[in-house]
Structure formats: structure tokens, C-alpha cells
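We emphasize that the prediction below concerns an isolated chain of 76 residues; any contacts that depend on oligomerization or on bound cofactors are therefore not represented. The input was used exactly as deposited, without trimming of termini.
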Amino acid sequence: MFDPKYQPILMAFFMALFMSFLMSAVISAINVGFPANFVQIWMHAWFSAFVIAFPIVMFVGPMVRKIVAKLVRAPH
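Result of the prediction step, given as a C-alpha cell string:
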């Protein structure tokens, strides 16, 4: 198991992994339909998307947490 200090990195990694996986499938299907080589096209798109998504999530995540903290009321 990982040390708790790695939680933000692991959260960003898995968020980027799953979101890029699902979104690249949807966008690939919209753009090319379902040809015989769909999985190859999708995996190429997924890798490209993940390489971009992970650093973005690492950068944007802390800003999003701050925005959400301002929007959510403190418990009574």
C-alpha cells in the first residue's frame, strides 16, 4: 500500500485514467463510428488523452478543491 502523502497523486492518476479512458471511447465512436480497428483507434486516443489529462488534473485539482471549499457550507 501507499503512504497517505501520495493520496493527491493517486487520486489525480486514477481520475485522469478513468476519465480519459471513457471520454476517448465516446469521442472516438462519435468521430469514426465502430470500424474493425476501433479498439486500436481508441487505445491510441486514450494514451494521448491520458498523457495530457494527468498533468492537467494534478495542476487543476488543488484549484478545484479551493473553489468547492468556498461553495460548500461548513458543518454546523
